[in-house]
Write a structure and sequence with these properties.
about 350 residues; six-stranded antiparallel sheet; alpha+beta; elongated; about 15% strand
Length: about 350
């Protein structure tokens, strides 16, 4: 590594680490208030609270990576610009691309780290933290089956139930996807159902079957249909929601539901977000460079301003596109990647203009 690369990286690493720590503390303030109330007023053991915080940490860490990358970029270049070190380096013949290369490489590294953490650590940690909340923190005596969650039994059936009433042993709006030897699954829908152990009594529903080309070739309505489920519904209290799934599990769910004709746009949007969210780290490093190069004398203050403005603008923009994708108003790919690509193009254009001006 060249001396210049080490120098720029050290300037950026300090603010980056401070940003990660600071933003994690901000994100955990509300959680800490809740945890303190649980310890003092509800008698939840301290070890349970500490364990919950530990499993919440990976998801918080991933959330801080992009803004910390932007903060580190803005603070490092702001300081170098304030002390005229950037001007001296560029006057001596160091190109802008050469000067900012270590920042872009660090942004790329943080993106890869964010992707790996979000893929292999966060889903499992989210699942365990939800179990801690349910079993220890809130001490639910009866397992609770979540609403609007897909789950699968041992016979490779996929289920969707909009609402479950555990006291009355009733369900509303049921969809069952049975993966058979044929190319497309059999789909069973029902308005309601009652259950006793592994036996479900579906009421007022329809059975659909599809041919090899995906066309509907069989449809039969029923008033009552008994379904033998491979597991007791109480075991479904441990089902995973979307945020508890890794990319492979989410992809399998989308594939199975898509073959059954279900609307998977919301799930596809979430799937592509698993790629686009980590990419934000690199995009923030790219965008932060041109805005930090023209910082005024108060370099550190300018770095904070750049971080706040871009963080707010980007996340509002990303939230809008995420909602458009989930609602089907945009293709899932466009909804997931448009914010990152738009900001990356802005960053490249400004960087090109800045390099041409010297």
């Amino acid at each position: 590594m060249k001396t210049l690369d080490r120098y720029v990286l050290l300037e950026m690493l300090g603010p980056f680490v401070v940003g990660v720590i600071g933003f994690i503390l901000v994100l955990t303030v509300d959680l800490l208030f809740t945890m303190a109330d649980l310890i003092i007023n509800k008698g939840v053991p301290v070890w349970a609270v500490l364990k919950l915080l530990l499993y919440k940490f990976p998801s918080l860490l991933v959330m801080t990576f992009p803004v910390s990358t932007l903060f580190g970029t803005a603070m490092a270049l702001g300081r170098l610009s304030k002390d005229n070190e950037l001007a001296a380096l560029r006057t001596s013949g160091v190109s802008l691309l050469r000067l900012t290369r270590p920042i872009l490489l660090l942004g790329l590294f943080v993106s890869l780290l964010s992707f790996a953490t979000n893929e292999w650590v966060v889903p499992r940690a989210n699942y365990v933290s939800n179990e801690i909340i349910r079993e220890i923190v809130y001490r639910q005596p009866l397992p609770d089956v979540k609403d609007n969650v897909f789950f699968r039994d041992q016979q490779n059936r996929y289920y969707y139930v909009r609402h479950v009433d555990m006291k009355r042993k009733e369900m509303q709006n049921i969809m069952v996807y049975e993966l058979l030897a044929e190319r497309y699954p059999r789909v069973i829908t029902a308005d309601s159902a009652s259950f006793q152990g592994r036996f479900w009594q579906l009421a007022h529903g329809v059975v659909h079957k599809y041919d090899e080309k995906g066309y509907l070739n069989y449809e039969a309505a029923f008033d009552r249909l008994e379904l033998n489920v491979a597991e007791d519904i109480l075991n479904f209290s441990r089902q995973k929601d979307v945020m508890d799934m890794d990319r492979r599990e989410l992809g399998e769910l989308i594939s199975a539901l898509g073959k059954g004709g279900a609307n998977t746009r919301a799930l596809l949007t979430e799937y592509y977000l698993r790629f686009s969210i980590p990419l934000t780290c690199f995009v923030f490093a790219l965008v932060g460079i041109p805005f930090s190069l023209s910082s005024p004398r108060s370099g550190q203050t300018w770095g904070i301003v750049v971080t706040i403005v871009f963080m707010f603008t980007f996340y509002v923009f990303a939230s809008i596109f995420r909602s458009l994708g989930r609602g089907g108003l945009l293709p899932p790919e466009a909804a997931a990647f448009t914010p990152q690509l738009s900001f990356a193009l802005i960053g490249l254009a400004l960087l090109w203009r800045e390099s041409r001006s010297h």
